Amino acid sequence: MAIQWSLVLFTVLTGIAGWMFAGVAFDSLRGKNQPKAFLAGLIALIVMAVGGIASVTHLSHPDRMLAALSHPTSGIFVEAVLVGLAGVCMIVFIILAKRGASAGAQKVFAVLGAIFGIVLSFMAGSSYMMSSTSTWNTVLLPIGYLCTSIPGGLGAYLAVVGAGDRDSARLLSIGTIVGGVLAAVASLAYVAVTGFPASAMAPLWAGCVLCGGVVPVVCGVMGMKTPERTATFGVVTLVGGLVGSACFRVIMWQVFALAAVGAPYITNFAAM
């Protein structure tokens, strides 16, 4: 099966959007960076919407989307619901932020939107788990989807708010460090369990670990040392996170293709 680029784009962008809005929620709860909350929330909403549209283009007949959503137990239904719920919460939040509504109301919708967005970054990977596809039938796949979304999302948020609040910038920089470590470990764990050798697809493997893991860690450390450059390091983290996240998803499709042709080093999860 060829790489489904529309699905790669969907899961990468919605994951970034969910974790970016998690940054919005984090600062909203602490009452920090409020002047930029509207802009950050709006950008997260746009990215989520673009990701959702990419998902629809995967269907050979997009006009049949409603029919595809008629099965509540399907992965596409769960993903669509989560995208919708996250999007609604983001919309309500940015309206409240624009109007200067009560901080309490803003916090409620910021947290709810972040929860739905984070859960979506996991469920987008969980949808591929099926006994008929051994290389995907492991919880390490959705965990990888979740973890590889963290650096890019937090990096995107830092790129918007910068060092408006030094304490917040420091804490979120720590978040990118943790996210980078988790992204690298999750990517390596999935690759190791599938038996996918680094030599078979070195650029993708390096993209996961170096771009998605090392770059966010280095930028997080540098951001803590020079907070006035937080926005710059946020942009670099975002780029690295995007590359690492995309590489992880491409690897998922590649191991599927290798398993389909009987590559000897692909582990059969069903036999474990």
Automatic annotation (TrEMBL):
Keywords: Membrane, Transmembrane, Transmembrane helix. The chain crosses the membrane at residues 6-26, 38-56, 76-96, 108-131, 143-164, 171-192, 204-223, 235-266. Coiled coil: none annotated. The keyword tRNA-binding does not apply. One of its GO terms (biological process) is anaerobic electron transport chain. One of its GO terms (cellular component) is dimethyl sulfoxide reductase complex. This is Dimethyl sulfoxide reductase anchor subunit. It comes from Candidatus Aveggerthella stercoripullorum. The lineage of its organism: Bacteria, Bacillati, Actinomycetota, Coriobacteriia, Eggerthellales.
